[in-house]
Structures are given as C-alpha cells and as structure tokens.
Amino acid sequence: MSSDHCADALGVVVSVSALSKIYPIYERPQDRLLQSIMPRLQRVVGADVKSYHRTFKALDQVSFEVRRGQALGIIGRNGSGKSTLLQMICGTLQPTSGSVQLHGRVAALLELGAGFNPEFTGRENIHMSASVLGMTSAEVAAVYDDIVEFSGIDPVFIEQPVKIYSSGMYVRLAFAVIAHVNADVLIIDEALAVGDAVFVQKCMRFLRAFRERGTLLFVSHDTGSVINFCDSAIWLDRGEMRMHGDAESVSNAYLEYCAQQSYGEAVKIRSIKRSSEAGNGTAKALPADHDVKFALFDNIANSDGWTSDRAEILSSVVTGKDGAVLNVAAGGERVRLTITARANGAIVSPIIGFFVKDRLGQSLFGDNTFSHMQEPLTVSEGQILEAEFVFQLPMLPDGDYSMTVAIAEGDPWVNIQHHWVHDAVMIKVASTKLRYGLVGIPFEAVTMKVV
C-alpha cells in the first residue's frame, strides 16, 4: 500500500487492484498447531503436503478506481465483503494479495466506536483518534472546540469515559473527529444509521460540502441513499465484485437480485418515472392514504444555521384546516405553514422561504414569498413579519425529513441571507405501504405581511 498527499496526474485518489483476502478456517483448535508444523515436516521427508484447514475468500480479485470529487457507493448483503474491503483500504487489515494505492490523508468511520478506548474520556479519545489520523497536538488543540460543538455532546460527558456513551454519542464523537482532520478521502461504513435525524442532516450537509473538494467511499444498505448521494457504485456478492457502474443501475440490479431471491425470477425492478399533468406542468397529486402517518416536531430551539443579526426567525408552525397546530397528519391534507420573523434593522424587500429535505439533505419541495408579492415590502426595525404558505401535504416514502426556513433581503438572484435555520421542523413518515413521493407540489396561496 502506498500513500501520497498529492493526487496523481489523472486525478485517481483511490486505486484498488486485484485485492483479495483469504482466511483459513479450522475445524478443531489443534488443527492450527498441526498446520504450523506438519506441512514443513512433510516437505522435509518428501511426503505429500496435507492441509489441516479450508479457506474462505472474504474478498476475491476486486479492482476499481475513484477520482477526486467522486462518491463511490458500496452495496451488498451482510457478509459480502464490504467491511473487509474498507478495512484493507484503510490499512487496518492486510490483504492476502493485490494492492491499494491512496493519494492523500484518509479518515474513516467504520464499525461503531472503532479506534476509541472505552476507558478514555471523550476528550482523550478526540486527541488519540485525531493523532492516529495524522494531526499534531497543536492542530488538534486548534479545532478541539469545533469538534465538541459539532458533536453536540454535553461538555460534562466529554470528560467522562466513552464506555458510558450511547451508540448515538459514539457516532457523534467519531464523525465530529473525522470532519475536522482535513482529510482527502472519507470512508463511511453504515455508521450513520444509528444517528438521530438532526445529526444525520448535519453530517449530510458536511459530506455534500466535502464532496466539492474530496473523495468519498460510502457503504450503505439503503440503496436510495446510494442512488441519490453517489456518482457510481460497486455491488459485492460473496467477496466478488458482481457489478460496477453508475449508482442507479447498480442499485436497481442489486434490488432486483434481492427480490428474486425471495419472490422468484419473475420480479423486475424498474425506475420510477414521475408524470406531470399536461398543460400546467404540476405534479399529479396522489389520493390520501390514511395508512400513512406524518409526525411533525418543532425543533427550532435546537436547530443550527447562521445569522447576520439583522433579522430572526421566531417560529415555524404547521396547522391544519381547523387552524390547530398539526402534530400528526395522514398525508394529502391541505395545510398552512406560518413562518414568523422579526426585523432587527430596516430591511428592503424581505424574502421568507422554506424547503423540505430528505435524510440525505436533498431538497424535495419548497417555496418563497418573492414571486408571490406584487410589490416588495419595506420593514422597519422591530417589526414582525408573517409569511403563510398553503399547500397540500404530499405523500412521501417512509423516513425522516426536515424543514429548513430562512429570511433574506433582495431577490432570488442577488440577496443577503439574514437568518438561515436548518431543521426547524422535523418530519417522520411511517406507512404500511410502499409509496413514492412528489418532487414538487402546487401551492394554493403564499402571502407575507407585517403584523
């Protein structure tokens, strides 16, 4: 294995060539001793060499390359060799044959808590993990407060042994460390599956920003995540690379294979094409399905973002047709989203908007007040603005979603963001039926006024 801090001329950051890992499997404990002694004696006396073990190929002749700025998804069933592959790329496991070439610093989030000493405190593990990843003591000290803030772990717990941490706290701390080591390659192995929705959104925002400059290897059983987040993917099956191509093609082939294993060869997976109504280009609404349950949670007190201090989002409330705050919905209802903001200084042409994101931080739908205002408003210091968005609550697949809200000044092309609030509302969707969500929805009414 070789490593270099500069990508090669072709931009290849990770190069895996004919990588294999073979484990000996012993039926009895004494066979280990026999295997270490008897073959040598048999060669000395000229007898046939006998093996006292059988072999298991965890990985067999896997080859691929990943370039700078690309995200590679790795999918496959449990035991297919995904974690073995990542461990060999990281250097924590030596291959039986083949080679791995890396160009740049690598940071990995593999199995839960890997690299942490359970007896050490959170503070001690931050310093230890960062130093293992190549950071000096001075570099760690410079970003220590940022790591703790990113993790969201209470300072009291940072000074406690990590053996008392929950699985979510482990992931928070581990991800916070790798997010601040200035790595060229990030390797994520399904660890984010145990994180809460707010933290996962924060991680996805970081990963999307990281992709603009670095390279990502992403292992997940969620093929939707792979399709939406990765450029390409490889499918591992019993240690062999069964397919390598664009993320959607590989994921669909894998899903079809898994379905056929359960339901027979007749199962076929096809891409879902969303149709639009002729003439107006709006998405066709699906009928309400009362097996679908939307749970909405006000999270504005715990959200993060940024502000210019010139305006402040005060609240973001979803109400039903009766005007009552909506905490649980069935999907398909007409709802009203009210976003309230305060001007801390004079603002010309304020814009209030929102968008709903999926678990990966991808925008699904949203709107803002600019295109619905006949004339821009002028707001004085201390005045309260109230924006209302009336629309039909779309059908969405099961999962966690969040709503970002913001107030800006200007127009959609040239503006100043005065307050941007991530995860102001958290949305959890649970259903007994498989469904596909709408990319966009028609808005019945959008208004903004000074109150």
Q: Features of this protein?
A:
451 residues, 23 strands, 24% helix, seven-stranded antiparallel sheet, six-stranded mixed sheet, 36% strand, alpha+beta
Can you put this structure into words, describing what you see?
The protein is an alpha+beta fold and 451 residues long. It has nine helices and 23 strands. The protein has helices spanning 29-45, 82-90, 122-132, 137-151, 155-158, 167-178, 197-211, 223-229, 247-263, and strands spanning 2-4, 12-25, 54-67, 71-75, 97-103, 106-109, 185-189, 215-219, 232-237, 240-246, 293-298, 305-307, 311-319, 328-329, 334-343, 347-348, 350-357, 363-368, 378-379, 384-392, 399-410, 415-430, 443-450. The strands form five sheets. Strands 11, 12, 14, 17, 18, 21 and 22 form a seven-stranded antiparallel sheet that branches. A six-stranded mixed sheet has the order 6-7-8-4-9-10, sandwiched between helices. The N and C termini lie far apart (65 Å).
Secondary structure layout plus pairing:
Blueprint (H helix, E strand, L loop, with lengths): L1 E3 L7 E14 L3 H17 L8 E14 L3 E5 L6 H9 L6 E7 L2 E4 L12 H11 L4 H15 L3 H4 L8 H12 L6 E5 L7 H15 L3 E5 L3 H7 L2 E6 L2 E7 H17 L29 E6 L6 E3 L3 E9 L8 E2 L4 E10 L3 E2 L1 E8 L5 E6 L9 E2 L4 E9 L6 E12 L4 E16 L12 E8 L1
Parallel strand pairs: 1-5, 4-8, 4-9, 6-7, 7-8
Antiparallel strand pairs: 2-3, 2-5, 9-10, 11-14, 11-22, 12-22, 13-15, 15-20, 16-19, 17-18, 17-21, 20-23, 21-22
Helix pairs in contact: 3-4, 3-6, 4-6, 8-9
**Helix share bin:** 10-25%
Largest sheet: 7 strands, antiparallel
Structural class: alpha+beta
Uncertain spans, ≥5 residues at pLDDT below 50? 2-7, 270-290
How much beta, percentage-wise? 35-45%
Count of alpha/pi helices: 9
Strand element count: 23
Roughly how many Å apart are the termini? 65 Å
